């Protein structure tokens, strides 16, 4: 599997974040081998802001269809370190590998940390 952190970092540099100043980028690889990048796009009406992870996932679905599954995902915030937010975790879980085994990588104390979606969001909502 390719290291997606450099691609997530490059995507973060393109973020539109004039309000929060949190420039977030995401890169994901699908089980079909597709690589998709996205960044957060803010709006003066904060509820209309789209996180980098959801932006990236939506692009992957648009390209590969509703059956798209995430093989791995990485997220970077320039100047800050944190895992995906709760809303993004739920969307990642929707397109995760069976049993939440999709690895998600982010930075903590300057080092990559990888956890499965099941670890990041135990008991994710499902139908």
Automatic annotation (TrEMBL):
Domain of life: Bacteria
SUPFAM superfamilies for the chain: Cytidine deaminase-like
Residue positions binding Zn(2+): 51, 85, 88
Keyword Lipoprotein listed: no
UniProt keyword terms in alphabetical order: Hydrolase, Metal-binding, Zinc
Reactions catalysed according to its record: cytidine + H2O + H(+) = uridine + NH4(+); 2'-deoxycytidine + H2O + H(+) = 2'-deoxyuridine + NH4(+)
Residue sites binding substrate per the record: 40-46
GO molecular function ontology, one term from the record: cytidine deaminase activity
Pfam families: dCMP_cyt_deam_1
One cellular component term from this protein's GO annotations in UniProt: cytosol
Active site, UniProt feature: 53 (proton donor)
EC number: 3.5.4.5
Requisite cofactors: Zn(2+)
Domain CMP/dCMP-type deaminase: residue ranges: 1-127
GO BP of this protein: nucleobase-containing small molecule metabolic process; pyrimidine-containing compound metabolic process
Family that this chain belongs to: Belongs to the cytidine and deoxycytidylate deaminase family.
Biological role stated in the UniProt entry: This enzyme scavenges exogenous and endogenous cytidine and 2'-deoxycytidine for UMP synthesis.
Protein name: Cytidine deaminase
Organism encoding this protein: Prosthecobacter debontii
